[in-house]
Amino acid sequence: MTPFGAKVRRLRKQEGITLTKMAGSLGVSGAYLSALEHGHRGRPSWPLVQRIIAYFNVIWDEAEELERLARISDPRVTVNTGGMHPCATEFANELAKSIGSIEEEDLEFLLAHLRNARKHNLPL
């Protein structure tokens, strides 16, 4: 599941809306919306994100959060380490091989560390 898919699913469940009903209102198939929620589709298009924001009638911070989550929710990430330190390539390959077996708590720790390093422009 992608961060965007999880958020949409949470909003939909909170409102008691079925997947079929929401899909019909957005003009997409139920299969597509389900795949989007579960991370089996790529990042949603900008117009679809806008329709989802309007569908849930969210504004300001929550709308911005949905837009941000859509930007970071590509389930098929490609990492180009050309020209970087050899450790970057090794890290990317090790991560690709093992990400599915890393515990959620450890993923959250690593993500927080990466965000902090980027925020402060620190070396990882």
Could you please describe the fold and organization of this structure?
This protein is mostly helical and 124 residues long. It folds into 2 domains: 69 residues, Orthogonal Bundle (434 Repressor (Amino-terminal Domain)), CATH 1.10.260; 34 residues. The protein has 7 helices and no strands. Helix 1 runs antiparallel to helix 5 and helix 2 packs across helix 3. The model has no long low-confidence stretch (mean pLDDT 94).
| H and E order | HHHHHHH
Number of strands: 0
* CATH homologous superfamily annotation of the largest domain: lambda repressor-like DNA-binding domains
Question: Class of the largest domain in CATH?
Answer: Mainly Alpha
How much helix is in the residues?
Answer: 55-70%
The name of the CATH topology of the largest domain is 434 Repressor (Amino-terminal Domain)
Structural class: mainly alpha
Number of helices: 7
Low-pLDDT runs of 5+ residues are none
